[in-house]
Amino acid sequence: MSTKEALRQEIEETKVRFHQLLDFVPDEAFDYPSDNPAWTVGEVLYHMSVAPRNMGKDVKMILGQSWLYRLFPRIMPKALFNWGNKHFTRYGARHLSREFLAQKYDEAHVLTFQALDSVDEADLAKRIEYPDWDPMLSGDVTLERLFHYIKAHFDSHEAQIRQIVVAVNVANE
């Protein structure tokens, strides 16, 4: 199996797991506070679709516009990035529903596959130095690592959401 095929499989499995997580979370849990004080559980579920939605832009940066990643930290320090991420997520998630979250993740999934299809196998080794905005995606980042980030990002938020829902259910019993 090629690296692209393995990535495609991993990304597809992550989509299935997102829908399983969405089925696990009761509607009332969308308003529970998350581990991130900026967001509710529902907002984190929405946030999980943001990185996949931006894969095409990140791929273009790595393949031909790497100078932008050297410029970004100068014009957008980590604090400003975090502020924008917080408010963009809150704004994007303002009409939360189970159907909305499923639709947004599925749209992002399609965009991720379009980005993956746009690269050759050899391109997956191309790299760039990412700013220190996200500890899971900073430093020396290859295109392959970028696509693995979809699963890693999901995994980190899935664990948090499951713990919150279970804890609230236990407290309510």
Note down, in words, how this protein is organized.
The structure is a single chain. 68% of the residues lie in helices and 5% in strands. With 173 residues, the protein is mainly alpha-helical. The chain has a two-stranded antiparallel sheet with strand order 1-2. β1 (127-130) and β2 (139-142) form a beta hairpin. The chain is globular and about 55 Å long. The chain starts with a helix and ends with a helix.
Outline the low-pLDDT stretches: none
Q: What is the alpha-carbon Rg in Å? A: 17 Å
For the largest beta-sheet, the strand count, sense and barrel status come to: 2 strands, antiparallel
Q: Percentage of helical residues? A: 55-70%
State the shape: globular
Mean pLDDT: 87
Order of helices and strands: HHHHHHHEEH
Straight-line N-to-C gap: 48 Å
Features of the shown structure:
single chain; 68% helix; mainly alpha; two-stranded antiparallel sheet; 173 residues
